[in-house]
Amino acid sequence: MKILCTDLEGTLAPEIWQEIGRNYNIPELSATTREIPDFEDLMNMRLEALQNNAIRYSDLKDFLKTIDPYQGAKEFLNSLKDKYQIVIVSDTFYELALPLIEKLGDYPILCHHLNIKDDYIESYSKRQNDPKRNVVKGFKSMNYECFCMGDSYNDIQMIDESNGAFIFAPEEIKSSRPDILSFESYNDLRNYLLK
Q1: Number of helices (H) and strands (E), helices first, in the chain?
Q2: What pLDDT, in 10s, does the model give residues 63-75?
Q3: Residue 154: pLDDT band with limits 50, 70, 90
Q4: Which of 7, 91, 155, 161 is catalytic?
């Protein structure tokens, strides 16, 4: 059986932290792993911004329900279910992503956890180091043929481990990795995956 490991943010849905930043007018939350590739540095900046603006988790949860997947993302995933098992592999957090996952069709997601205390996000717990690479290694160790798709530098670790990989990425990432197949639409990638 083939497995498609797909990133979530920037691939199937908007960047959650950027959406939070826009909603609460916090410019520091606009950065992603495209701009700050080191996950710990990026998360420390995000948590500090939330704390400085006294954003309660209960308020955040209500806002998260308003974020929708990209147009066509759910249909894209549904169209692959006969040929691929689908797993969402993300550097996001269950506490932020679950409303989006429900809208996409409740596919399994492997990501990190936020530590919440007294209704504020206090810190986070990573699932493991090199989480995306290790997911793909795990599936391959069980003799699955593993394909990956993503949009950013943090997806390269799983892409390099995969049997086949695809990106929906800005030009600087595409030009830095011309060896990875690049697609502009779900329809084009679906046609490729099902041929």
Answers
A1: 9, 7
A2: 999 999 999 999 9
A3: confident
A4: 7
Q: Distance between CA atoms of 124 and 43, rounded to whole angstroms?
A: 8
Whole-angstrom Cα distance, residue 114 to residue 101? 17
Buried b (16+ CB within 10 A) or exposed e, 50-72: beeeebebeebeeebeebebeee
Active site residue 7: yes
User: Tell me, what amino acid is at 63?
Assistant: F
User: Can you list the alpha helix ranges (DSSP code H) found in the chain?
Assistant: 16-24, 39-52, 57-64, 73-80, 94-104, 131-141, 156-159, 171-176, 186-194
Question: How many Å apart are CA 62 and CA 6, to the nearest integer?
Answer: 26
Which domains are assigned to the chain?
Answer: 2-194 (3.40.50.1000)
The active-site residue, picked from 9, 15, 19, 161, is: 9
Q: What is the pLDDT of residue 38?
A: 85
Angle at CA 30, nearest 5°, toward 153 and 40?
55
184 is an active site residue: no
Copy the structure tokens of residue 140: 């391959």
